Amino acid sequence: MRRQWLILSAVSLGSLMSTLDGSIVNIALPAIQQDFGIDLTTVEWVVVAYLLVLGSLLLPVGRLGEVQTFKRVYLAGFAIFTIASVLCGAAPSAGALIAFRMVQAIGAAMIMAMGPAIITRTFPAGERGRALGLNGMSVSLGLTLGPVLAGILTQAASWRAIFLINVPIGILAIVWASRVLPAETPGAGR
């Protein structure tokens, strides 16, 4: 297997994780609302805050990757995402959960902005479309699996499990990406 396909696997894992986390929370909102005793408007911020921060940071984080290297930003994003997942799972209040979701979205933005950039830099023009398409399948899979996984985890354990499941996967992804992503020189991007 050529190295570029290993790189794609690391990037696709990040795409899967960050989109999964965007959709997994929706099913658990009633359980979160009941656990914290909050109204619907407040609990919706668990989702909205994540999406607002994620969407607003994609372009600035993309530029950061060009300056600091895609690999560094990608790995830092996974670390932030994983640590924030622990914090979300242990959140003592709705306000804390919303704040931790915002931190988690910072990590997700770093992961999602670097993915296409890494693929574009790794694959030659003739294979780039297929690689981006396969990564797009990871995005779709994450969005599709989120609600199903949320239902299973919320019923079997609690809403906190939807965040804590990210921890072992995040650690695995950090180790895998650190091994397969190519080293770059800072400031090499244009």
Which labels suit this protein?
190 residues, mainly alpha, 7 helices
Structure notes:
- The model has no long low-confidence stretch (mean pLDDT 93).
- Helix content is 86%, strand content 0%.
- With 190 residues, it is an all-alpha fold.
- The two termini are 29 Å apart.
- It has helices at 3-36, 40-68, 70-89, 94-122, 125-156, 161-164, 166-180.
- The chain is elongated and about 50 Å long.
- Helix 1 (3-36) runs parallel beside helix 5 (125-156) and helix 1 (3-36) packs antiparallel against helix 7.
SSE topology sketch:
Layout: H1 3-36, H2 40-68, H3 70-89, H4 94-122, H5 125-156, H6 161-164, H7 166-180
Helix pairs in contact: 1-2, 1-4, 1-5, 1-7, 2-3, 2-4, 3-4, 3-7, 4-5
Order of helices and strands: HHHHHHH
Quick check: average pLDDT? Answer: 93
Number of helices: 7
Shape: elongated
Query: Into which percent range does the helicity of residues fall?
Result: over 70%
Major sheet attributes: none
Going by helix content, strand content and strand pairing, the class is mainly alpha
Distance between the termini: 29 Å
Number of strands: 0
